[in-house]
Amino acid sequence: MSFIDWNDAFNNSKFNDLSHNWSFDLMPKNINGLSKENRRYVQQKYAHFTCTRCSNGWSSAKATVEFYHRLDCGRGTIRMLLLGQQCKKCGNRNGTYSEPDFPSDVMEKILDNLHRCICEKYYGQPRVKNRNPENAKKMNGPHIRELCEACRKGICKEDRA
């Protein structure tokens, strides 16, 4: 899914029903953190990766997307950062990461979870646990921390296990 797909899903989501206008943008990878006024929200879900160097493909249940959000002067801002993985097959270790390609249903679930987080933080809605284990994708296999951009940033949930 490209940023255009994410933006379309965002524009057709529940964010339109909120009392403030919210903008959605992609965060450049070269930003070293944001001000303390921004709050961070991280999701890990199933996605597919394709190496840009050798075209090898793989799936991971630890694909990570990071959001920074804030509400300031009546306007909400959300910035998204897709965290990638490096290819195990070709040894693409030059600092280049393949970005996750989330299925559309997973992307919508991530945006629903983000919406719930925004409603809790800025609109005082009660925290809702929405765990549905029977719908979770079961994936077993190794998580290679050296190939995971989220691990290198210290935000991978697998890294804290």
UniProtKB/TrEMBL annotation:
Entry's localization field: Membrane
Pfam families given in the database record: Zn_ribbon_3CxxC
Alphabetically ordered keywords of this record: Membrane, Metal-binding, Transmembrane, Transmembrane helix, Zinc, Zinc-finger
Transmembrane segments: none
Domain spans labelled 3CxxC-type: 44-154
InterPro entries per record: R-trans_p, ZAR1/RTP1-5-like_Znf-3CxxC
MF annotations from Gene Ontology: olfactory receptor binding; zinc ion binding
Signal peptide per UniProt: none
GO CC annotations, alphabetized: membrane
GO process terms (BP): protein insertion into membrane; protein targeting to membrane
Keyword Signal included in the entry's annotation: no
Membrane topology note: Single-pass membrane protein
Name of the protein in question: 3CxxC-type domain-containing protein
Organism: Didymodactylos carnosus
